[in-house]
Design a protein that fits this description.
By secondary structure, the protein is of the alpha/beta class. It has helices at 6-15, 35-47, 79-95, 108-111, 114-127, 147-158, 173-182, 201-209, 222-230, 247-250, 257-265, and strands spanning 52-57, 63-68, 102-106, 134-138, 163-166, 186-190, 213-217, 235-236.
Length: 277
């Protein structure tokens, strides 16, 4: 390489450039970023987490909401932070012109705690979201000792315009009592449980009469989608419909193309009053 060439000059300058540590022992700026800029970058990275599971109507033709999955396995230390992140996603979509309701799972012991209810109420009020965009998903019913405290906490949150769902519905008498007493807007059934057992069609028909909507969850096989159709589920979600996405990807989603394709290839006509198809 000729010493006089421009390339030689550039390579020599790059070789002699002082080495810059990525991060020193004192935690000084990373690659020239200030601590505030680094914190914003880390916050942005967290928001790219793929934890928003899309929910569609029964035929997969319309996006009707999301389940914020990180809250399903959150610890008590993470609960409020993750709840705030879920609200932030719904607010982000709302500011972007998309009305995408979010279901935020909450453990029963947190709903029975006055401190948690106070904190959740503050977060919901500060989000300033319209009524109907925030739904609390009760993961399991509390034991008898926490039952009344949990109901009081749910009623406080309902006064803020929050909807209530039961995420793990099995059809027990206790669950039916809670659904009726609290007038829950939705119940979620794991469709993998009905691959070998009979569908609770009569029970769900009674629930639908009370305006409680049916959510068919964990659809991973075509058989699950067929069962959800037989149940006349109002909403469906699972890997077959669409896997979880980031909050930015959610802005581009309107329907479940996989479910629409399955329905078009395998129509399932319902029998008429005479039993004919």
């Amino acid at each position: 390489m000729s010493p006089k060439s421009r390339l030689y000059t550039l390579v020599k300058a790059w070789k002699n450039k002082p080495f810059q540590e990525v991060r020193d022992a004192c935690g000084d700026p990373w690659l020239g970023l200030s601590s505030q800029a680094l914190e914003e970058h880390q916050s942005w990275s967290k928001r790219q987490a793929i934890g928003h599971e899309p929910i569609f109507n029964g035929k997969g033709t319309k996006l009707t909401g999301i389940l914020f999955r990180p809250l399903l396995a959150s610890t008590d230390m993470q609960l409020l932070r993750l709840f705030m992140e879920g609200l932030d996603s719904v607010s982000y979509w709302y500011r972007s012109g998309r009305f995408i309701p979010g279901i935020l799972p909450i453990p029963a012991h947190a709903l029975a705690s006055t401190k948690y209810i106070d904190a959740l109420s503050d977060l919901i009020l500060n989000s300033r979201l319209p009524v109907g965009l925030v739904t609390l998903g009760i993961q399991t019913l509390p034991d008898s000792k926490l039952g009344e405290s949990c109901k009081e906490g749910l009623l406080r949150l309902r006064r803020l315009g929050v909807l209530i769902h039961l995420l793990q519905f099995s059809g027990s008498a206790e669950q039916l009592h809670w659904i009726e007493e609290l007038q829950m807007e939705g119940v979620h059934l794991d469709m993998t449980l009905f691959r070998q057992t009979a569908l609770p069609t009569n029970l769900l028909a009674e629930l639908q009469k009370s305006r409680t909507q049916i959510y068919a969850s964990n659809l991973t096989l075509v058989k699950d989608l067929e069962n959800a159709t037989l149940l006349q589920a109002d909403h469906c979600y699972g890997g077959l419909m669409m896997p979880p996405l980031s909050r930015h990807q959610m802005l581009q989603i309107n329907d479940s193309r996989i479910a629409k394709a399955i329905f078009s290839l395998h129509p399932h006509p319902q029998p008429n009053q005479n039993g004919d198809k």
